[in-house]
## 1
Amino acid sequence: MALIVQKYGGTSVGTVERIQAVVKRVIHTVQAGNSVVMVVSAMGKSTDGLVKLASEISDSPSRREMDMLLATGEQVSMALVSMALQEAGQPAISLTGAQVGIITEANHTRARILNIETTRLKKHLQEGKVIVVAGFQGVSNTEDLEITTLGRGGSDTSAVALAAALKADFCEIYTDVPGILTTDPRLVPEAQLMAEITSDEMLELASLGAKVLHPRAVEIAKNYGVPLVVRSSWTDEPGTWVKSPVPQPRSIEGLELARPVDGVEFDLDQAKVALLRVPDRPGVASRLFGDIANNQLDVDLIIQSIHEGNSNDISFTVTKDSLNRAESVSSAILPALGMSESEESSVLVETAIAKVSISGAGMIGRPGVAAQMFSALADAGVNIQMISTSEVKVSCVVDAAMCEVAIATLQKQFELTTAPVSPTKPTVLDDKPVRGVALDLKQARLAIRHVPDRPGMAAGIFKLLADNTISVDMIIQSQRCRNVNDTMTRDIAFTVAQMDAEAARKVLEGVQASMGFGEVVVDDSIAKVSIVGSGMIGHPGTAAKMFDALFKEGINIQMIATSEIKVSCLVADADAIKALKAVHEAFQLSGKTLTKVPA
Ligand code: ADP
Ligand code: ASP
Ligand code: MG
């Protein structure tokens, strides 16, 4: 007999008929000898309906009142589901987050779970009841009982957190698609179902726009080793398992707020190549990385910064022994692009660099963590040359001579007792370099012009944003330094959620004079297309193939950022779907079976 947590999303409980179908499945599970804790979302799109009502009353409703409002959606479905179970003869009880004892931070509309009481749940399970818990909600503490919500899509997180607290045998997420597919089947019906995916890959996909799982749910599954599966509410197909390595034992206390960083990694075997002032037009990245791949050179980080005028800077890192060949390939393509080194364009190489990273599955949605890293490095006098962020890692390229200082600083900052290590290889499930493609249409790009090039600037900027709870993605500093009024400056560009863009601009403009940077430019007509796969390490040419697919569609790449297991490109939002389809096709992820998503 197993203890199973089953979560049903909005569509799955969207009508009375669907609730009855869900009840059948639950009763079937109980009759097979299992105990079931259900977590339910609000019916259909009712949360969107509540958000709309609020917006008709106020442009900026208080976050506390939003929580009071939004938490009601789940209360409707939990009661109806519990009634339907009772009607079918199955003893059941519905409980709100407060009644269970799901304790969260007091941070309204985006609270993290701190602890979950299990006494009451265990008592009802002992009585043979199915428990129906309202997803997406908790309370700030047991005295004030302030209702909080976890952020849109947060019922997945409620479910996995309950599974971790109850040490359930597994957690099933029932939804309107057959499982996790190679991309969103609503946009690309040829997308194919995966039987399994690693938690690191799913963390990236979820954070890059694949809303089939809430990223924090994957984070908890990884940290606590909760077996997690995504399945269709309409069929008995096996769905997709999210695979996590066996974790270190962890207390349930501080559930989502426990130590975000588990370790420091460093790599001294890297060298940097930067191409300055290459033309800003489709095909440049494709040509460069195509030639690099043809020479069997494995590229690690790739960064392309925003363009100034009509040129771009592209920089990348390779292992030291590949540097000479990477440099000659890079120099050779300049004439091919109609540029000569004597003109504006140039190739710079740097061998004395080190990549220093912090890693851990607790950084999602916690903008303060990367900011803390940048501040600590700045305080220790370490200048950051390149930044690369993923959901589980933040890496900085620094001067090799500062590597030891950087490591010691980060060990201290994040209170780590484990020794720093060379980069660890992630788990690879099959020989495909790319397993999934994600599209995020809800991002905006901010560019800060002419940021003085000295330690502490990135730290100051990202700490300020973090203090305003603005999460930042795709941080890129330009390689090129420009002399503005006798100060060497660089541009810094990054992406944020569209809803945070204006707030970010205001906050930054507030410190423009004191920090001494130039204009802050917002662009929200962008989209981010990303490829994800643990197998891309050791598959030279993966990034080149993506760039080539975009080039063949005539799509210009505005920004590039990579981590070990992902490559993200910013493109114009008008090109988004075309870009997604082209990239999905280029990696042969399409299949013959088409997935129809129920309305
Ligand atoms: P629920 O209400 O059940 O939580 P969501 O709408 O939050 O459902 O998530 C399911 C949706 O996620 C699917 O209908 C699909 O459109 C979308 N989706 C995006 N990317 C993927 C992907 N890679 N695989 C499966 N579904 C995806
Ligand atoms: N009902 C909430 C939302 O629509 C939570 C969820 O469905 O996961 O965001
Ligand atoms: Mg969801």
## 2
Amino acid sequence: MTNHEVLPLLDQVADGVSQAIAHARPELAGADPVVRRSEHADFQSNAALALAKRARTKPAELADALTGALADDRGPIAHVEVSGPGFLNITVPDQLIWDQVADRLASPRLGVGTPHDGQRTVIDYSAPNIAKEMHVGHLRTTIIGDSLARVLGFLGAEVIRQNHLGDWGTQFGMLIQYLDEHPDATWRHDELEPGTSAVSALDELYRAARQLFDSDSAFADRSRNRVVALQSGDPATIARWKEIVAESEKAFRDIYDRLGVLLTPEDSVGESFYSHLLANVVAELTEADIAVESDGALVMFSEDVTGPDGNPAPLMVRKRDGGYGYDTTDLATIRYRIQDLKANRLLYVTDSRQALHFQMIFEAARRAGWLTDEIDVAHVPYGTVLGPDGRPFKTRSGGTVRLMDLLDDAVSCAHAIVSEKNPDLPGDELDQIAEQAGIGAVKYADLSTSRIKDYVFDLDRMVSFNGNTGVYLQYAHTRIRSILRKAGDPDVAIDPAVELHPAERALALELDAYSATIADVSQTLEPHKLCGYLYDLARDFTSFYEACHVLGAEEPVRSNRLALCQLTARTLQHGLGLLGITAPERM
Ligand code: ARG
């Protein structure tokens, strides 16, 4: 196998049109050739329409001039036809299309390059809060962030995953105090009944502590002292805090393992990590006059954003009681990621309600001079998961839905539909496939809706074999694998002289667009574009398979078709992999 990048046909054609532009109208050299895939030909260029005005001519005339230039030096173009007011309908030679398929098939990376080489990208994702149940919002950041980590990593970026756990703050003083005063409360995982997690137990104890705090002023005072003890590093308090963090992390890890995400314990760099840096950050911002006194607190007033009252929106740098909160920690965090981790791209995957928070953090970092134009920074927001009633997803009693229960439900739904489709699967294998299908279904449903939109959590739809679902794609992959197994999984050689059937052509051109799709996801940070691509690819395969015999075809057609099957199976499997979804061999 060879590892070089395969230049997509679209780019080759675009180069050809660019050269024609420079040749026919030197004053337009360098202009965008505006090449797209087309329904009327392989590709279409709208350059003549886009550039006619600049060339002081009619689109049709410019189109003729470009066609003439392309006739002199065809490059990757077999045939050009002017249509409508000046569209260039472009057909590429069959041989070139077969060569692309062969080259991609020969590459372990499917011919995809590494355009992000040399980039160091921090992705902040998941970040649940210690002693609190992870909710469906954390499911989204975990799934989306993980897919982005895979995509950017595959394109060559050095990805630094950061799990910004909510493991610090005054609430821990209260919880620790409560646990100390209630030694009989059970919350460690080895004391609990199987099926309950330490986080749920802590979550409940936290509520009880909060109630006591609000009703008993002596307890409230003891809790405040505990906060001081925690922040000044009192050994007994720190030991208890560490224990709480470890118990919670264990429960989070169970979810991560089940989801199969990349996050490891080393990626956990929670809020507490920054606590010793906060005073220094505050001093730096104060000296630079970015943080100013307001009502006894230190705040930064935004120069860009106004709050609901029409005044500049404030960022809380230090509270009136002298304490530091979420805002201060994120200031220290961004400085650390730029100055210590030396990242040149920073991504924060959280729900869209935190948009203003991050806008203000980025503004502060820019004003402080930490964030420069060489560094790309983005909040990657996402919408809310809704229940069947169209309201934010909650349990019937209005509580947080336990993620583990949700995943269990998805897997048992998948179990039911897979065993119905394939009753002969042995039990063990069925269980394993159901796990892959159920988890894949949840992930795919999340990734396939446009990120910023809300979506309804609907298990029946998610695990369906029909429509744009993870199960449909996994199944499409298994069907192709079964064809290939029947053929004996041969190493095939492509004969580029074979004339392409229209359905082969459509499939091959779609396969060739894989790298552009991934590049698009890396720019827009929208994994649903990859989902949409894989879905189209699976459907192009279906049309091809309906129109063309594979196993029963004569050579050399048969080998060429098997090559298309192989490349489709590998692309589906690889693309699902970038979404964090496994593609089983059978279902
Ligand atoms: N723990 C926060 C939450 O649950 C998310 C943290 C996101 N990352 C950050 N750097 N603020 O909402």
